[in-house]
Write a structure and sequence with these properties.
This protein has 298 residues and is α/β, with parallel strands linked by helices. It is built from 10 helices and 10 strands. Helices cover 38% and strands 21% of the residues. The radius of gyration is 18 Å and the shape is globular.
Length: 298
């Protein structure tokens, strides 16, 4: 069973879709929040299909639009990771209100940008019993610097500084193309387009521009600093070995900072977007489902 739902975060209505098992006694189901990449739209990257898979396995699953994106309320172009973290925590609270949900069996899974948000929230919110990060990131500043040449990084810092001066006078921040933040690897462009072109709703995806203020907030956000707090709760990291969007070595560092119980799967030779295509899409879900069942007593 699936239904359109909404919950409130900082007074903003966040639009979502809830997937539930057709028949389940009250208080019997584990629940999971799915966290998108930076595009932030709930219909993208197979999320409805993944939500249905979780419901068929006995979970209550929630997909949702980031604030300011899709059907959610909020300022267009504002992607502040600390605010996203609050939205995820409020999504967990929303799931706790569902009569089918066992509030002691809550989980998170996220891809790309969401793959950095998930370990952060798991580190600061003890309600998260199991967390799964797929092709994620560990430190916003290091991430942004590592995908740029030195002169590009310095130019970006200058633009952010100038934008900060403008903001205090006008209250507005310059919007920039999403791909200026993600800085895609040209060598992956053909593979990326081939994979994403086969994903429902992504033949012509809507890319939200984000502000330079968002970039600045991203630089300050460091999931790696809190992942040691996840234990004794469980964490799984799935990493594309040739990831240049969210560099694999940084995600591996985050895994190393995480205490047991934890698990790591580095997929050799796989690019960032490869996790969304077959055969890896199915393999990622199979491993994730097995890990969740192990640690959520399903």
């Amino acid at each position: 069973m699936e239904s359109k739902v909404g919950f409130y975060s900082d007074g903003l209505r966040i639009a979502g879709v809830l997937f539930e098992p057709d028949e389940a006694p009250d208080g019997s189901c584990p629940a999971i929040v799915l966290c998108q990449g930076m595009i932030g739209i709930k219909e993208y990257f197979w999320f409805p299909e993944i939500g249905r898979q979780f419901a068929q396995a006995g979970f209550v699953a929630l997909i949702w639009d980031y604030r300011g994106v899709g059907e959610s309320e909020g300022e267009h172009g504002r992607l502040y990771p600390q605010e996203q973290a609050e939205d995820i925590r409020n999504a967990l609270t929303y799931l706790e209100t569902n009569p089918k949900v066992d509030p002691d069996r809550l989980a998170l899974i996220g891809w790309s940008f969401g793959g950095g948000m998930v370990p952060y929230v798991a580190g600061v919110d003890e309600r998260v019993r199991c967390a799964i990060s797929v092709a994620g990131w560990s430190d916003g500043g290091r991430w942004a610097q590592s995908v740029r040449r030195d002169y590009e990084w310095r130019y970006l810092l200058d633009r952010i500084a100038e934008d900060r001066r403008t903001r205090v006078k006008t209250g507005e921040s310059q919007l920039r193309d999403l791909m200026d933040i993600l800085v895609p690897d040209p060598a992956e462009a053909e593979e990326r387009d081939s994979i994403l072109g086969k994903v429902p709703h992504m033949e012509n995806p809507s890319l939200t521009p984000y502000s330079l203020a968002s970039e600045e907030m991203l630089h300050r956000f460091k999931p790696i600093d809190v992942v040691d707090r996840i234990s004794p709760r469980a964490a799984l990291y799935i990493i594309a070995g040739r990831d240049t969007i969210c560099p694999a070595e940084q995600a591996i560092e985050m895994y190393e900072r995480t205490r047991e119980p934890k698990k790591l799967w580095v997929i050799p030779g796989l690019s960032h977007y490869g996790v969304y295509g077959e055969p890896y899409k199915t393999q990622v879900m199979d491993m994730s489902m097995a890990y969740l069942k192990e640690h959520l007593d399903l």
